[in-house]
Hints:
2 strands
Amino acid sequence: MLYIHDMKEKLIPFSDIKKELLKDTSVKKEYDRLKPEYEIISELIKLRIKGELTQKQLAERIDTKQSAISRLESGNYNPSLSFLIKMAEAFDKKLEISFK
């Protein structure tokens, strides 16, 4: 669990801070807008860890650089559809995208 110190050195669970922040409608709207992106990133990290691959090993599988995997996993890279397809294939998965 992630904790954050307040000014009095009291530990506050991040989940409590998140809950409070999401009461603000503008924060909630942006959070919901970014949610799919972070769900994809989270899933790719889980697959890489489950496959016991380093970022470098995964990069080699899809013919890219380790830094590209790092940027993706940190949320600093907006992958193309072809990049996501390569990632899915590296894990012997099929990429499916849907609109709801």
